[in-house]
Amino acid sequence: MHGLLSSRGRTRSRGTNNFSRSVSELRIKKDLDELSFRRAHCDFARTRVLLPRGKADLLELRLIISPTKGAYKGGHFDFKLVIPPMYPYNAPEVWCTTKVFHPNICLETGRVFLAIVDDEWRPVMSVSSVVVGLQLMFLEPNPDSAINPEAARIFRTDSELFAAQVQRSLAGAVYGEHVLPDHRIGAPSTDADEGMRAAPRGPGGGGQPAGGESGGAHAAELARRSAR
Known about the structure:
It is a single chain. By secondary structure, the chain is α+β, with helices and mostly antiparallel strands. It has helices at 2-38, 127-139, 149-157, 159-170, 191-198, 219-226, and strands spanning 45-51, 60-67, 77-82, 93-96, 173-175, 178-180, 208-209. It has a single domain, classed as Ubiquitin Conjugating Enzyme, CATH 3.10.110.10. 38% of the residues lie in helices and 14% in strands. The strands form two sheets. The protein has a five-stranded antiparallel β-sheet with strand order 4-3-2-1-7. A two-stranded antiparallel sheet has the order 5-6. Helix 2 (127-139) runs antiparallel to helix 6 (219-226) and helix 3 (149-157) crosses helix 4. It is globular. The model is unreliable at 188-206 and 211-228 (pLDDT under 50).
């Protein structure tokens, strides 16, 4: 009897997990349609949204953000977004896979400390909201929620030194045990970049665009609309 109840319990658990995943996939499809329509526009960054595993798996996204203004202008930065089973009730998990000198990005793990994917997340928000938050993070780092205390200290005390330090880091630098690659636009490509360019662009392709390159409307307007 106990074994029968345990078996039923496992079946219910699997059914609940499958249902949650289906709900997450339906919502992320809507988010990606919205993102494609709006093309992630902002005045200070260009953004590409890719599906590393094609349309067969919408619960992992790749963002490539290239700031066009501010201290990080000229760089390009890779992000991995993992959509949880309880999305949109739980926020996406976000990592930066490019090692970068930034107050809100952990050099060790790549974890991104951003309020919008933490205590400020609400179910009405979307992937577009996350894109805007990441774009703004490069224009206006937040030292109050810093994970890189040295970057936060320099940002607070000397903005010119911070900008110079960032530009040096974009060209490749060493910080303690961490080697930062040259990730300026036009720099020699990494294997990941080559894979992205070589990936098929058609339906189901491993590097299939899910959004578009940005440039145009202000990010605040996009954030306001995406929160409706």
